[in-house]
């Protein structure tokens, strides 16, 4: 393992920012830390980098303990490099000088520096930009320079703190694809902080869901999407419809929602009550045609509002017991009309009452 984090925690005064956290990163593995602002993502990354001291626990890199009680190796002596959210390029140095900075500090000879520069400028599409200052570059070009500088010293672990958040939407979408390709080609272990689910899905081999300083779920993107461990994780995965229901009797993997039997994935079976929360992905809901007779997993709803979103319409409706539900449709639907909708059991998550503490 390139990185082992064992029971690491952090408090600022009386506020505990990170509860004891344990996880490992293997060689070439890309792990995204996903969660909302304030959940402890950047603090965790800074502690691994050595920029923040840990309160308890142990951090090990490539078989060497870099921090534990009474023992601390500073950032410059750890086998890491970091790409920051604001790029952090030296403004008075041109692209070439920024990329060479770490190599010169480590006293690499001129031949090795030139070979690394040639490889990185080709890999990151920086040809023709080496003599420019950062102020003369676009946001995407500055970000590529920041990544090239971090890769130049061949770290064993690359730390990335929301590296695409300052880019506009189109450039961010393009760059996340490029970044995933680049990290895959280099096969370098990466710990990547983001609050963007699609960015995490594009880049990561595994995703760590961080909430209130603790790990809510840790697994492959498909695992998190197809079986989110709690209603909160489900919402983060795009299951934006949260409805109150009752568990179906006789142990069925179904819930009674607005008087209808709705099948789905029952996440928690250790319950002592019949209360449940049903999380439904809006993309998995379809409006039944007037002629069709719905076959199971259907609900009667009243349309409240339709919103045009370019390639589709967002339909805002409510169930017969007045719970709001969002879905998408290829055309507008008249407000006030009553329709039947069908939900996919594959993207319907049922959480029993005993799991509500995880919401």
Quick take:
This protein is α+β, with helices and mostly antiparallel strands.
Polypeptide structure, described:
- The structure is a single chain.
- A six-stranded mixed sheet has the order 7-8-9-3-10-11, sandwiched between helices.
- The mean pLDDT is 89.
- The chain contains eight helices and 22 strands.
- By secondary structure, it is an alpha+beta fold.
- It has helices at residues 41-49, 95-105, 110-123, 139-151, 169-186, 197-203, 221-226, 231-236, and strands spanning 3-12, 15-25, 30-34, 56-61, 64-68, 71-72, 80-83, 157-161, 189-194, 206-211, 214-219, 241-247, 254-257, 260-263, 265-266, 275-280, 285-287, 298-308, 313-319, 324-329, 338-343, 348-352.
- It is elongated and about 75 Å long.
- Helix 2 packs parallel to helix 4 (139-151).
- It has two domains: 3-226, P-loop containing nucleotide triphosphate hydrolases (Rossmann fold, 3-Layer(aba) Sandwich), CATH 3.40.50.300; 240-358, Nucleic acid-binding proteins (OB fold (Dihydrolipoamide Acetyltransferase, E2P)).
- A hairpin with a 6-residue loop joins strand 12 (241-247) and strand 13 (254-257).
- The two termini are 32 Å apart.
């Amino acid at each position: 393992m390139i990185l082992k984090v064992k029971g690491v925690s952090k408090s600022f005064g009386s506020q505990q920012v990170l509860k004891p956290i344990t996880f490992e990163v293997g060689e070439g593995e890309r792990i995204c830390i996903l969660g909302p602002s304030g959940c402890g993502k950047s603090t965790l990354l800074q502690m691994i980098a050595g920029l923040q001291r840990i309160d308890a626990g142990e951090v090990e890199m490539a078989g060497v303990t870099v921090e534990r009680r009474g023992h601390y190796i500073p950032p410059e002596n750890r086998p890491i490099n970091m790409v920051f959210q604001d790029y952090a390029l030296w403004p008075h140095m041109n692209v070439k000088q920024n990329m060479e900075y770490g190599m010169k500090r480590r006293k690499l000879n001129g031949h090795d520096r030139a070979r690394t520069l040639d490889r990185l400028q080709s890999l990151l599409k920086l040809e023709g930009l080496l003599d420019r200052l950062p102020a003369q570059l676009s946001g995407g070009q500055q970000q590529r320079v920041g990544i090239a500088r971090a890769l130049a010293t061949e770290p064993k672990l690359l730390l990335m703190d929301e590296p695409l958040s300052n880019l506009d939407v189109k450039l961010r979408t393009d760059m996340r694809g490029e970044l995933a390709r680049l990290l895959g080609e280099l096969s370098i272990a990466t710990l990547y902080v983001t609050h963007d689910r699609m960015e995490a899905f594009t880049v990561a081999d595994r995703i760590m869901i961080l909430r209130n300083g603790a790990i809510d779920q840790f697994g492959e993107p498909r695992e998190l999407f197809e079986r989110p461990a709690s209603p909160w994780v489900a919402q983060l995965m795009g299951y934006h419809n949260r409805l109150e229901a009752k568990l179906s009797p006789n142990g069925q993997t179904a819930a009674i929602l607005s008087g209808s039997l709705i099948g789905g994935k029952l996440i928690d079976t250790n319950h002592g009550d019949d209360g449940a929360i049903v999380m439904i992905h809006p993309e998995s809901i379809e409006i039944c045609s007037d002629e069709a007779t719905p076959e199971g997993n259907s609900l009667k709803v009243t349309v409240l509002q339709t919103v045009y979103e370019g390639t589709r319409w967002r339909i805002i409706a409510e169930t017969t017991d007045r719970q709001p539900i969002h879905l998408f449709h290829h055309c507008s639907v008249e407000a006030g009309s009553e329709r039947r909708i069908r939900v996919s059991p594959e993207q319907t998550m049922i959480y029993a009452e005993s799991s509500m503490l995880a919401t």
